[in-house]
Amino acid sequence: MSEEQKPTPASPDPKPADAQKAPDPKPPEAKPNEEPKSAAPASASAPVASAPKPAEAPKPAAAPAAAAAPAAAVAAAKPGEAAKPAAAAAPKAAAARKSTEPLPPPPSLTTRRTFLKWGAAAWVVFFVWLTGVMHLFLRFMFPRVLYEKDPKFRAGRKSDFPELGKVYEKYKESNRVWLARVVEDGEDHLVALSTICTHLGCTPNWLDAEQKFKCPCHGSGFYKSGINFEGPAPRPLERHRIFIDAAGDVVVDTSVKFRQELQEWGRNESFVKMT
């Protein structure tokens, strides 16, 4: 068979211009010596004969739609990336709306109930302040003073101390004084001894059986006259002023003290003569 009689296979994507040219409706004549495989190309050309349809012609508007299709496909393939700008812009838009919203009006103070509340609070504050001022004024008018009892006290008459060599402990707790009758330089004297130990200030006890004062703290010992003789006490007990007033009473003044190491026990008011 010659080359001119061989059918031309149709292209898979025929162009619209080729579709307007209709092929020869008469199929080529088959020769008896032609091989059966030529039937396949002949049948392949069948779609070419049916291609000329006016409805399949491309429209001019199809090109823009086809160009936008890849962009839409890319956007549909990545939905998260398209949503990120919108999600990021949402807080900003909410903040902008909140900043533009008007502030609520301040509470009104013109109501009767509110006026009464604030008025009562003001009066309470005023009375608290006035109380503090009055307290300061009263403290100024009555200053804080430590009132102590009179250092002088009446111990009784001379006849209330009849026994020679006896220690009277009647005023030990109330006035911290012992009254003792002692013999000094051949004379009978009534003396007022302090109950404070000269070592560390403890209160000794009078031991009548041993005829001495004994300190329970560190063991200092004193005779009934007040002279120290044992223990750590560095000096004798102190004596207080004692005298007879105009009424004949024995008066002891604890504000005045006499010390033996200073040669003060020889003064007249350091003792009272009993005879």
Describe this entry's structure for a reader.
- There is one protein chain.
- β6 and β7 (221-222) form a beta hairpin.
- The termini are far apart.
- The strands form 3 sheets. The protein has a 4-stranded antiparallel sheet with strand order 2-3-4-11. A 4-stranded antiparallel sheet has the order 5-6-7-8, with no helix packed on it.
- It has 7 helices and 11 strands.
- It has helices at 16-20, 39-44, 46-50, 62-77, 79-100, 112-141, 172-175, and strands at 152-156, 167-168, 177-184, 187-194, 205-207, 212-214, 221-222, 228-230, 239-244, 250-258, 272-273.
- It has a domain at 152-273: Rieske Iron-sulfur Protein.
- It is α+β, with helices and mostly antiparallel strands and 275 residues long.
- The radius of gyration is 67 Å and the shape is elongated.
Fold topology:
Elements lengths: L15 H5 L18 H6 L1 H5 L11 H16 L1 H22 L11 H30 L10 E5 L10 E2 L3 H4 L1 E8 L2 E8 L10 E3 L4 E3 L6 E2 L5 E3 L8 E6 L5 E9 L13 E2 L2
Antiparallel strand pairs: 1-10, 2-3, 3-4, 4-11, 5-6, 6-7, 7-8, 9-10
Low-confidence stretches: 1-25, 32-52, 60-77
Mean pLDDT: 74
Question: How many DSSP E strands?
Answer: 11
SSE sequence, one letter per element: HHHHHHEEHEEEEEEEEE
CATH superfamily of the domain at 152-273: Rieske [2Fe-2S] iron-sulphur domain
Q: Helical percent range?
A: 25-40%
Keyphrases for this structure?
275 residues; alpha+beta; Rieske Iron-sulfur Protein; elongated
